[in-house]
Amino acid sequence: MMKSVLRAALLSLLVGCSESKLGKIDTGEQTTSTTPTNTTPTTTATTGTSTTSTTTSPTTTTGTTGTGTSTTSTTTGSGGLFGGPRCRLIFDGKDDYVDMGLGAWPEGNAPRTVSIWARVEGTPGNLYSFGSGSPEDRLSILFTSGIAEEFAAVNGTGILLGALVLKPNVWHHYAVTYDSETLRLFVDGIELVSTTEMPFNTSPGQLVLGVNPWKSAEFLRGELAEMRVWERALEADEVARDATAFTPDRTDLIGYWPMQEATGTTVLDESDSEAHGEILGALWADEC
């Protein structure tokens, strides 16, 4: 009961205040599964209570309620970044993705922040993934399906579910921060949920957009724009600013893809890493 009330309250707040190089994946038509894939204990952690039961799902953690606040309303409703990103990449949910390669992404238990703009049309769908598929190695941000169509973070062992239930065709700014202890999920600059029960031990691995490369599945159906990666955990007020900033804070910035090319098969990284991405199937929007 408390979990349902908490989710409803958070959703109301959002609406009110706004193992190798991955080659081209050939899977044919996408089959969307609405059933979980493995059987592990499920942990639900709420403010003040914790219960454990066995179910056919990955380890699932619903962490404590976030306290971050947003100082602007430009990211709410159907608007997004000043009305929504003009130039963006479109993913068909079948076999489209972008490969950023084996960059110098945060390894082990190192701090990190990743932010991206997305308009999701259906589930399941990965916004991005990096690391490998081993336990506690992967960092994936996605919308789940089956149990709940929710914004979530995955570390290869567990899933941290946010309280934002999918609303198709709405642009939002999604961010994840990790300070080597606490994992936090943000939407439109507002912290949704956090947990200290999902450690990371990330090994060098490729960064991809729009797919879960270890399943050759969970292809994104929707659009992505303006992705940024830092090798530090941004503070809540910095995430709120990032949600409306045309240009990012470059302190410890190790990946920045504005996605303004409008043509071709390359997404340019404007950070010093120069980890340019290869577009495999995704298309530029006509408005670019």
Task: Report on the architecture of this protein.
The protein is mainly beta. Helices cover 8% and strands 37% of the residues. Strand 9 and strand 10 (150-154) form a beta hairpin. Strands 3-11-10-9-8-15-6-19-18 form a 9-stranded mixed sheet. It has 2 helices and 20 strands.
- Largest sheet, described in full? 9 strands, mixed
**Share of helical residues:** under 10%
The average pLDDT value, as a whole number, equals 73
Which structural class matches the secondary elements? mainly beta
**Cα separation of the termini:** 46 Å
List keywords for this structure.
mainly beta, 9-stranded mixed sheet, 20 strands, globular, disordered N terminus
Explain the layout of strands and helices.
Blueprint: H1 2-16, E1 40-46, E2 49-55, E3 59-61, E4 64-65, E5 89-92, E6 97-101, E7 112-120, E8 125-130, E9 139-143, E10 150-154, E11 158-165, E12 171-178, E13 183-187, E14 190-195, E15 207-209, E16 221-230, H2 236-242, E17 253-257, E18 266-267, E19 277-280, E20 283-284
Parallel strand pairs: 3-11
Antiparallel strand pairs: 1-2, 4-14, 5-16, 5-20, 6-15, 6-19, 7-12, 7-16, 8-9, 8-15, 9-10, 10-11, 12-13, 13-14, 16-17, 18-19
In short:
With 288 residues, this protein is mainly β. Helices cover 8% and strands 37% of the residues.
